[in-house]
Amino acid sequence: MEDNDDFPFSFGNVSDDEESDGIFCQPKVEAQPTASTPVKAAQEPYYPQIDQDGWFHNSAKSVQETMLQEKTGATKIKMRADHYYMLGQFKEAYDLAHEYCRIIALNEINLIDRGNGGIARPDEGHTTSPSNGGDVLKVTDSKEMQEMIIRCAIKLGRMSEAADLADGLVALEPGTVFLKAKVYSAVGRFDDAAHILVDYQKTRSSNYAVWRSLGETILTSIQDTVTTPPSPFTPDSDSVTFVKATTALLALLRARHLMRCSLWSSVSYAQQRYDREMSILCKNIASLEHRCDIVRPYIATADIDDLSMQAQFESKIITPLRKILESWNDSIASSLTTSTTTETTATTQKILLPEVVDFVVSAWDPQVISSSTTPNQC
């Protein structure tokens, strides 16, 4: 048998001879790259549109043509509507936003005729495929422009239309929540406004602005219904107004407490707004405390003051509210087994939604009536 001293493995296409230049194989010779100068096509100078004052107005096309044929068409229409709104031209902003939403809605159901700029109808035989590569509308979200329509409708005095449009908005962001609450309050739908604020507050319980809006919404409903001279509210004299006044007071106290606990006042540029909103809160709280027969003792000791206030709130507000809630629940439960539900439902809706009152009462904490007025001190 002939001896074979070759290395038993092969690496690459070279010999396995030990005297090769590499360890197992010959080193690779890398090809030297050759420099090539790319050929640049002749291009026109680029001028950013943002450098042109009012660039979003420079178009002779219709709204639909701008949105379909231009890459930044949808952005142009949005900025144009925002600009009109800032200038106080609410009718122009309303029309633009309305047309924007109409095109988005038609595009979602493939009724946009991209060939002649009209509206495609199935019975007319129009094709719904883009006529060219540029006529493709990629924007599908019209929520911002829906909110713009609502804001313009409020400015134009079209409150019923604004409320109908607000019903279709999905409240997932604070701005949308506050807008819907504002619209509902403006048309007298205070229960709906309070309900949407409470629903949002269940997920963001530390947001002072929601508590403040809730209290102000309920307070506005009192001012719209109470025409008699100011006098203390009691459960026996006026249970409807008592529930509203005490619920509004508890919500505003919670808002003030959250403001004091925050670091907001430590920011210099926010101090002016903080002082302004705190002043309004304290004014409304003092007014409601007087109407609810809450008397602050003239004692220098803060601890004694807090204990006295806590006792008054427990006896004059919290306990009566809990009893009223129990009676509501009993009335609602009994109405489910009888046929006379109209009167009970109307009474409950007139007072306030039970879940709103229950949420505010359940969040009661004696800390919110602390006499401390020092920011960041709870």
UniProtKB/TrEMBL annotation:
SUPFAM superfamilies xref list: TPR-like
Gene3D superfamilies in alphabetical order: Tetratricopeptide repeat domain
Region annotation (Disordered) ranges: 1-20
Stored InterPro entries: DUF5588 (IPR041404), TPR-like_helical_dom_sf (IPR011990)
Record's protein name: Uncharacterized protein
Species the sequence originates in: Podila verticillata NRRL 6337
